[in-house]
């Protein structure tokens, strides 16, 4: 399984200000049971933006995951090109509701089929079989509750949420 983290939930991953579901998600990644897919200039900018002169907590975490071999680094160029394709698709055949084309592009390019987000429009897009398929996208969210319950644990234990082919979208 591989996962993507949306920038709207990163505060949920940390001890102070986070929540049990977010910390449980991060713990699974930190222990190496769930690799994190990362790539594309938009997501990199969102997740690693600098607060001051030093890297953000999220930027340091991503760097640690990369050193530990727990990060699936995807070509920025490939994700950015696919993002542009999706932007053009919005104007033609597929109704994309969110403004997170870069997240959908990363899923299509990397094969990641688990997304942690609380964005309702992105959730709908990620579950849209015309956009994310073989296997279908799953969403981990904390909009209603933030406990690290059995349902969330089972979702994180799945091994069928990382597509093997870059053409499966």
Task: Outline the structure in words.
By secondary structure, the protein is mainly alpha-helical. The protein contains seven helices and five strands; from the N terminus they run E-H-E-H-H-E-H-H-E-H-E-H. The chain has helices spanning 20-30, 41-48, 57-67, 76-90, 101-110, 120-126, 150-157; strands at residues 3-5, 36-38, 71-73, 114-116, 138-140. The strands form two sheets. It has a three-stranded parallel sheet, with helices on one face. A two-stranded parallel ribbon has the order 2-3. Helix 6 links the parallel strand 4 and strand 5. Helix 4 packs across helix 5.
Unreliable stretches covering 5 or more consecutive residues: 165-169
Question: What is the strand arrangement across the widest sheet?
Answer: 1-4-5
**Percentage of β-strand residues:** 5-15%
**What proportion of the residues is helical, as a percent range?**
40-55%
Report, as a whole number of angstroms, the end-to-end distance: 16 Å
**What's the number of extended β-strand segments?**
5
The value of Rg in angstroms is 15 Å
Structural class: mainly alpha
Q: Shape from CA axes?
A: globular
Overview features:
mainly alpha; disordered C terminus; globular; 169 residues; two-stranded parallel sheet; three-stranded parallel sheet
């Amino acid at each position: 399984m591989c996962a993507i983290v949306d920038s709207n939930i990163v505060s949920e991953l940390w001890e102070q200000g986070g929540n049990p579901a977010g910390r449980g998600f991060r713990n699974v990644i930190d222990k190496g049971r769930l690799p994190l897919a990362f790539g594309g200039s938009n997501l990199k900018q969102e997740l690693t933006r600098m607060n001051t002169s030093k890297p953000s907590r999220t930027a340091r975490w991503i760097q640690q995951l990369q050193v530990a071999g727990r990060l699936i680094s995807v070509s920025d160029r490939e994700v950015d090109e696919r993002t542009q394709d999706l932007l053009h698709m919005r104007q033609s055949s597929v109704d994309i509701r969110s403004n997170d084309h870069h997240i959908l592009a990363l899923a299509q390019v990397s094969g990641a089929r688990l997304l942690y987000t609380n964005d309702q429009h992105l959730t709908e897009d990620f579950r849209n079989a015309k956009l994310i398929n073989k296997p279908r996208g799953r969403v981990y969210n904390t909009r209603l509750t933030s406990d690290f319950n059995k349902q969330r644990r089972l979702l994180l234990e799945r091994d069928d949420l990382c597509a093997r082919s870059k053409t499966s979208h």
